[in-house]
Design a protein that fits this description.
Strand content: 25-35%
Mean pLDDT: 93
CATH superfamily of the largest domain: P-loop containing nucleotide triphosphate hydrolases
Number of strands: 10
CATH architecture of the largest domain: 3-Layer(aba) Sandwich
Strand order of the largest sheet: 6-7-8-3-9-10
Helix content: 25-40%
Shape: globular
Length: 228
């Protein structure tokens, strides 16, 4: 599903963020990415949806070396990868429905299929009754639910979440995690970078710990392992 072999990433300023990453993630896994600030977690995450390219090494997703694909092919790659950010990144002038539908409109899905799929995912995240609301009319947790709905509306095989509960209160964070578990139970691979010790230690999943650009720990049903 996802294979990284001898992955290095050095930025233009000379900083090496990843220093020889080797990892495999199988279809349907739920994986936490943990580690101290500056460890390389963000670079690790960004590689998988081609926000950045590795300096060297092999990176395969669905048996394709994505470091070799052309820029014009990147949008096609991202149809199979849903990305969820800490800061939601919703379009403020579009309604909840329109924000989610936009992901299907850009791939020219039929209006009938868009309507059904959008309402289905809004139902999944508990926002079917707020489809006409605008982002500024929603709580932070509700906005994150919209971003989750947008990320999964294409039925991606992989969902990448970068600190998705970082701006949320504890109760809302647990609700968001229930949504992620439900998505994962449907067979979608979840890769989640997080600083939440409580979430990682309570909802036990695979834990990959990164320090100084290297994977230092990879455990099934692992603990967070850092002070948070």
């Amino acid at each position: 599903m996802i294979l990284m072999k001898d992955i290095y990433k050095t930025y233009g300023n000379g900083v090496t963020a990843l220093n020889g990453i080797n990892v495999e993630i199988e279809q349907g896994e739920f994986v936490y990415i943990v580690g101290p600030s500056g460890a390389g977690k963000s670079s690790f995450i960004k590689l998988m949806y081609r926000e950045i390219k590795p300096t060297r090494g092999l990176l395969r997703i669905n048996n394709r070396d994505i470091s070799e694909i052309k820029e014009k092919e990147v949008p096609l790659l991202r149809r199979n990868i849903g990305v969820i950010f800490q800061d939601f990144r919703l379009l403020p002038k579009l309604s909840v429905y329109e924000n989610v539908a936009f992901a299907l409109e850009v791939i020219e899905e039929s209006p009938r299929n868009i309507r059904k799929r959008v309402m289905d995912v809004l139902d999944l995240v508990g926002l079917k009754n707020k489809s006409r609301f605008f982002p500024n009319e929603l709580s932070g947790g509700e906005q994150q639910r919209v971003s989750i709905a947008r990320a999964i509306v294409n039925r991606p095989k992989i969902v990448i979440a970068d600190e998705p509960t970082g701006n949320l209160d504890p109760d809302t964070s647990w609700e968001i995690m229930k949504v992620f578990e439900e998505i994962n139970n449907s067979g979608t691979t979840i890769i989640m970078a997080t600083h939440s010790k409580e979430i990682v230690n309570t909802i036990k999943k695979r834990v990959i710990a990164i320090e100084d650009g290297l994977i230092v720990r990879d455990e099934q049903r692992g603990d967070y392992g850092y002070e948070s």
